[in-house]
Write a structure and sequence with these properties.
By secondary structure, this protein is mainly alpha-helical. It has helices at 2-29, 48-64, 69-105, 121-141. It is 72% helix and 0% strand.
Length: 143
């Protein structure tokens, strides 16, 4: 059970750190205007998704080794999540924003659809660094 805890705590801690950083960065950008949605929303700096999968990958690598099968599965999962954040979700978010703009220009009474936000590559990289640091710290705490 102790080993399972390290994995789950790494994931949760990375998410809390990334979303907390996202909240603080947004508050500074908006000159102190607080938007609590940044505590759970997707998109923006840093990527919480990248932080969580890299934290898990790091703990698995340190506990089971980088040649283990489970490390390979976790690496694949991390690659898919981070690729999706930059390529797929970012693209669909841009398309959603364009659709919203068209609806506004037409002055339509159609309810604006939600435009999911993806990530810029830098946002994913910073999230990954947060995950790496959180994973290493968690590993040494639960050693």
């Amino acid at each position: 059970m102790r080993h399972l805890s390290a994995y789950l705590i790494a994931i949760a801690a990375a998410w809390v750190v990334a979303q907390g950083a996202k909240f603080l960065i947004d508050s500074v950008r908006n000159q102190g205007v607080i938007d609590y949605r940044q505590l759970y929303s997707s998109g923006n700096m840093p990527s919480g998704h990248s932080a969580t999968v890299i934290a898990l990958l790091t703990v698995i690598g340190l506990k089971s080794g980088v040649e283990s099968a489970i490390f390979g599965v976790a690496a694949l999962l991390a690659a898919i999540v981070m690729y999706d954040a930059v390529m797929v979700r970012r693209s669909s978010g841009e398309q959603g924003a364009a659709i919203q703009q068209l609806i506004k220009e037409q002055k339509s009474k159609v309810k604006l659809p939600r435009a999911a936000k993806g990530h810029e590559p830098l946002e994913v990289a910073v999230g990954a660094l947060i995950g790496l640091a959180t994973g290493i710290l968690t590993f040494f705490i639960f050693r």
